[in-house]
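User: quick one, fold this
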Amino acid sequence: MLPPIQVAGRLSYVCRNGHPFAEMPKKGYNTLEQEPTTIMTESPWYKKGLQFECKVCGRCCTGGSGYVWVTQDEIDRIAAQMGLDPAMFEQVFVWTVRPKQRSLKEYPNGDCVLLSDQTRRCRVYKDRPIQCRTWPFWSQNLFSPNTWKATAQACPGCNNGKLYTLEEIEERREGWVG
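Assistant:
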């Protein structure tokens, strides 16, 4: 997540792909990554489910600077799909943020290094990292109806297609913890 910015006179936050979030909780976030650290005790606002169908538009793969975390298993799987040795893939496409934390590189314009500039589609969609596979069901997108609305304004797949149940949403939300 990027530092807060002023939007219409209010403090707003922007995530890796440039999506604005009109409101964020004041407590329950750690200071390093600004990811939720609290557990919901009440039924969330999306308890009846949310619709999403990926339109493969690539909008979630570009925007503001940030991280797309990758594990060694993901590196190995993506490298195999691209026909590369994992060490070579890592040298070209991955950077070490902190010891044991690696992220895909990005271009200066904010595009993920795996986003094709010709098709605007992920070159490894079948084996994309879990962070990408769990989009848009990230905690910061699900924080409130307003944050979901802001996400849907940037992502044409939100509020369209398959209706995900609360259980499916929570499984995906918990699948990526940042």
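User: anything notable?
Assistant: The two ends are 10 Å apart (CA to CA).
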